[in-house]
Amino acid sequence: MEHGYETEVLHLEEENPWDFYFEYLYPNKYQIQHMGNRRSVEQLRESGDTFEDVRKVDHWVYFQSIEDKENFDAKVKLLGFEIELDAPNDDKIYSHIYRSDYVDFHSINEVTDILVDIAGECNGENDGWGTTVVK
Question: What is the DSSP string of 16-46?
Fold first, then answer.
């Protein structure tokens, strides 16, 4: 006992190192997307965006196969998304979709949560969104 404090050292031995971190501390797929959303919304705010109006919001999702992309495209069309016809990319299979939406933090999180779910169902990976500043 030094300086009136009693100390005790505990040691936790994990069977698989990092399990606790990845199971409890590491952000899940929604939290990771929300962090990116927050950055994008803050950039819009810094650019003078008012967040009052809907505007075209583009989203990109990457896939392992054409079948997965087509399945995704069919599902998001039912939610009002349009499919952007981009030039073919030999390196990756992707879907570039868009819809008019609000982009405040709450609204964009709702949209991206849905897209993360559908992308996951279709073996895809959501790669983010973009839009223009509306003042």
Answer: STTHHIIIIIS--HHHHHHHHHHHHHHHHHH
